[in-house]
Amino acid sequence: MDKQKEILTTALKLFVDYGFHGTATSKIAKEAGVANGTLFHYYKTKEDLIIALYIDIKLRVAQHIESYRDEHTEYKEHFKKQFIGLMLWSLENDYEFRFIQQFYFSPYASLMDYEEIQKLSKKGCEELEEAMEQNHIKKQPIDYLIAIVNNYVFGIQQYLRQSKLTPEEKKEVIYNSYETLWIMIH
Amino acid sequence: MDKQKEILTTALKLFVDYGFHGTATSKIAKEAGVANGTLFHYYKTKEDLIIALYIDIKLRVAQHIESYRDEHTEYKEHFKKQFIGLMLWSLENDYEFRFIQQFYFSPYASLMDYEEIQKLSKKGCEELEEAMEQNHIKKQPIDYLIAIVNNYVFGIQQYLRQSKLTPEEKKEVIYNSYETLWIMIH
DNA sequence: ACTTTTACCGACTGATTAGTCGATCTAAAT
DNA sequence: ATTTAGATCGACTAATCAGTCGGTAAAAGT
Lengths: 186, 186
Hints:
homodimer, mainly alpha, 0% strand, DNA-binding, DNA-binding (chains A, B), TetR/AcrR family transcriptional regulator (chains A, B), HTH-type_Tx_Regulator (chains A, B)
């Protein structure tokens, strides 16, 4: 693993465990096994690192959801696959998910403008808009829909994290939760 | 306004705008118009202040929801009143809401144990459990239900905050959103 | 009246932090 | 072979921060 990647991985873990300001850059560097200067060679400021990490994770999520794209099935099934795919991914990428949440509700989020954030999940949004035009789902403001779906995902993930369910039971919950989501947007 | 209250109010604003570690205790004291030592007279540590603020807001929310209690109407209407009451409160207490969200997803949340957090909205949870037993709402794990409802509220609030709707339009959204919530839990 | 407790002040400190800088070390380009 | 450019190092610094302390003033208790 190259040093830059190592920095990101370590930063992710520390930021989630101790918060943004609660994590010193020197601690990240030390734990990542690189020199202090190396961190600042790749990221000019701590803020840069935080935003780079956010974008990195967002892109990985988008890419993963993308891999579930299947234009041939009907919309409900197509959307279901993506939702389930995302939730299963969240089970195995807990830190990534928690980082996104922490970032969302932190003052750092307002450093990126709203447009730029949305751009990172552009494909997904476009698909929702398209589905709305074709009357597969209820007509409502796209921002509203996104907020609802996002927070539903967060809710399920949060429940699963603090629950003591077995992996099998968690998967069961995920599969069942889709029906409710569909009812919400349909 | 007494000094202690002034400290809490100032801390709320600064924590939301700059984050927990991004806000220096000296800055809180200065902006609240009290001496540095006074802050530490009331709160032994910064962490104490953060948790006291969280509890203060949680209690105010609980109290406000409580004021909408009305045992005489049927459950759907009763729950609606509480939901609408909460959402309207959130419109006028934006900072309080954002603080709760920030706290939830910060490492500070894990300093309080889960039990203690739930206790602060005990009444609401008990009511939900009761309603479930009497088959007013779908039978499902109480934690699941709470996570879903909580995050739905967050979602609507988040949408309203970043939207450019007039106060009247916002109220319209709130009233409409209840139907979806009811479907979700029913 | 006097004693104790509480409210409040602000200068001070030891520790920590983000970020800098000049040096060394590659590895590719010419 | 020599230049150039990026990668990596770690000691250093100026600034900042959480929390302390010794003191004064005002309430509260007796």
